[in-house]
Amino acid sequence: MKKYLIPIICTAVLFTTACEDKLLEPQKGVVAYEDFYQTDDDAEAALAAAYDIMARQLARANGESIISPFEALFNLPGDDVYAAGEFYGDNDFNGQINEFRGDANAQLVTSMYKGFYQIVYGANLVIDNFKDGTTQVQKRCVAEARVMRAWAHMMLAIGWNCPPLIDHVLEGSVRPTNYGNNDYESHKELLKWCGDEAMAAIDDLRARVNKNDKKGTTYITKGFARYVAGKAYIFAEDNAAAKTALKPLVSDSCYSLVPSGRIRETFHLAGEGNEEIIFATNVTQNPAMSTWGGKIQKGYWMHLDIWGWRTDHWGGTPSVVPGGWGGLGVRQDFVDDLIANDGANSARRLAWVRKYDPEILYDMPYSTDDPDWLKDSIDNKPNPNYHPERGAYIKSVTVRLNASKDTVWKDPVKKIPEMDTVFTANKNEDIRRGITSYLYGQSEYLHYKRILDVADNDNPRTLNVLVARLAEAYLLYAEACARTNDNDGLTYLNRIQNRAGSQTVSGALTLAAVKSEKRFEMFLEGCRFADLVRWYFEDGDDEVYNKLKDNGKNVPQLYDQLFQVTDSKTGKSNQPRTTKSETHTIYIEMQHPNLGEVGFKHNKHEFFPFPGTAVMSINPDMIQNPGY
Question: For 288, which of 31, 91, 299, 331 is 20 to 30 Å away at the CA?
Fold first, then answer.
C-alpha cells in the first residue's frame, strides 16, 4: 500500500511530483495514512484542515504577503475601478489586471489559480477517505467538502473557462487537462456539474438556526450549498435549475437583508456573522494562536491596507479610518450612473462611495480637530496661540527641512530651523486637511464600502473573508426569474432597491433592471467582470468590450489647489496648470501613463490565462486559453 502521512498539506503546484515525493518520506511525530481516516473525530479534523486551507487561500493565496488575489483578481478587471497607488506602477500586480496588460505569469493569476486547487485538494482528502462513511458526522463532513470543492471549481470555471475537474486526490504522475472539449459548451457543463454537486450534498448539511446564528455563517450550510448551486446554474444558463436551488434560500427566515442604516457593516468587523451573511471564512480567535503564527494569515487586512486611502498625501487623516496605500480608485462614470439610479443621498451611495469634497474633506472628523492649543481659551484664560489680527492659530514647531540658500538655521550643525506653523479654525483654509500632493488613480469619489475602519484594526486586523451574502442570492434569483418570465423575482429585486434607499424601484421585472441593480449592489464583491463576460456570451451584450477597451489609457489624478509643492523626483510642480488658491479647491487632471498596449481585447481577455511557468511549462496536455 502506498504510504501517506497525515497531517501533510501540499504547498507546491499540484501538477508536479514534489508532494508525492514528500509524502513518501518517513517522518517523526505523524500518524500513518491508513491509521488516521477512521473515526468521526478524524473526519472532523480533516474537515477543519480543509477549512483552514480555504481560509488561507482566500486571504493570502499561496502565501501572498500583502494582497488577496481572490479579492483583487475578480474586482480589478471591471468597469468601475482603477488600479491606483502612490504613482503609476505602484504595486503593479494590480495594474496588470485592471489594464489588461498582464501575461500568463501574472502574479495574481498564478497565485489564485493554484489557491483554488489547494482548496480542491483539501476537500478531496475528506471526500476520498470518508465517502463510504456510515455515521452522520462523516456524511456531513463529506457533504461540506463536496460543496467546498464545487465552489472552488465554479470559481475556476468563471475565471479560466475549462480548467481541469479534479474530483479525487491525484497521483503525482497524473497530468490533468482542460475540461471537456475546452469550449464554451464544456464551460457550461462544468458549471452544471458544480451545481449538481452542491445540490446532491444538501440533505447531509446543517442549516443556519436563526438570524442570530453567527456560527452558522462560518461553516458550509444548506444555505451556502443552494447559493453555490444557484450561481453555478445561472452561469451554466440553466435558469430553471437556478430557481429551484435558490428559492428555498431567498425565502428562508433565517436570513434577511440588514436595514439601510447598517448596509455597510456587512463588510466590516461589526457585521461579521450578521443576518445577511451566508458564508465567510472564519478567523478563529484562538488564544494559543499568535498574531503572526496563524491568525494573520487567514485575514486579509493588509490587502485592505493597499485599498485604503493614501492619507500620507493628505494634510491629516480622518479619525474614523486608518491610512492606506491608495491602491484602488473609483471610476467617475460608475458613480455618475449610481447617482442617476439611486439619487445622490441614497443609503447605498453614502455607504459605497464618498465624494472627497465635501464629504471626506470637511464632513468627516479628523484626528487633528480641536487640539487643546487650538481653542479660544484654555482653563478660562485667553489662548496665547491665537492671533486675532491674523485670524489664525500660530504655534512654534521644530521641523527638519532640506538646506536652501535662504535657510536660516537654528542649529547650523543639526540643520534644524524653528518656524511658525499657522493653522486656522476655518476648514476651508486648514492645512491639516486636503491633498498636499496628489492622489493617483482617484476621481472626485473615493471608495468607502470596503475601506478599513479604525474598529477593523482591533483583535488584531483579522477580518473574515466574505464569500456569499443574501443580496447576491436575491439578484441571482431575480435574474433567473426575469429570464423565464416569472414575476416572483420582482419581490427580491424590490427588496434590494428599497433597502438601498434608491429612487429607482422597479414596477416590473426586467432583465435590464436586474443587470443594472447588480452592477450597483455588488460593487467590489467580485461579480462585475464575470457578469460582463457572461452577458456577452449569453445575450450578446457588448458592454464588456465598450467599457473595458480603454482601461489604462486615461487615469485621473486628484489635486487640491490650496497646496503648491514640487515633486522631489522630477523637480517639477505637480500642479503645473494652476496657481495656488487661498482655500481648498479640488480638481482632476487626467494622466496617460501607458505607452504600450492596454485595454480589453476580443478573444483573449474573457478568461484568465493558465499560469505559464506553474502549469503550462510542465504539463504539455494543457491547452492555453486564446491570446496567450
Answer: 31
CA distances (Å), origin 312, targets 36, 330, 457, 606: 53, 19, 18, 37
CB 295: neighbour CB atoms within 10 A? 18
Provide DSSP, 555-568.
EEEEEETT---B-T
Per-residue HEC secondary structure of 335-377 comes to HHHHHHHHCCCCHHHHHHEEEHHHHHCCCCCECCCCCCCCCCE
> Averaged over 210-232, what is the pLDDT?
97
> What's the rounded Cα separation, in Å, for the pair 19 and 76?
33
Model confidence at 33, pLDDT cuts 50, 70, 90, reads: low
d(CA 119, CA 116): 5
CA–CA separation, 11 vs 118, rounded Å? 8
128 burial via Cβ count (<10 Å: 0-12, 13-18, 19+)? middle
- Full-model pTM: 0.88
Distance CA 618, CA 610 (A): 12
Q: Which residue do the cell numbers 492649543 mark? A: 373
pLDDT digits (tens, 9 = 90+) for 236-246: 999 999 999 99
Q: How many CB atoms lie within 10 A of CB 20?
A: 17
Q: At 487, list the grid cell.
A: 414575476
Top mean pLDDT of 5-14, 280-289, 374-383, 495-504 is at 495-504
Give the whole-angstrom CA distance, residue 275 versus residue 214.
8
**CA-CA distance, 266 to 441, in Å (whole number)?**
26
Q: What are phi and psi of 160, to 5 degrees?
A: -125, 5
Tell me the C-alpha distance between 278 and 198, whole Å. Answer: 15
456 phi and psi angles, rounded to 5 deg: -70, -15
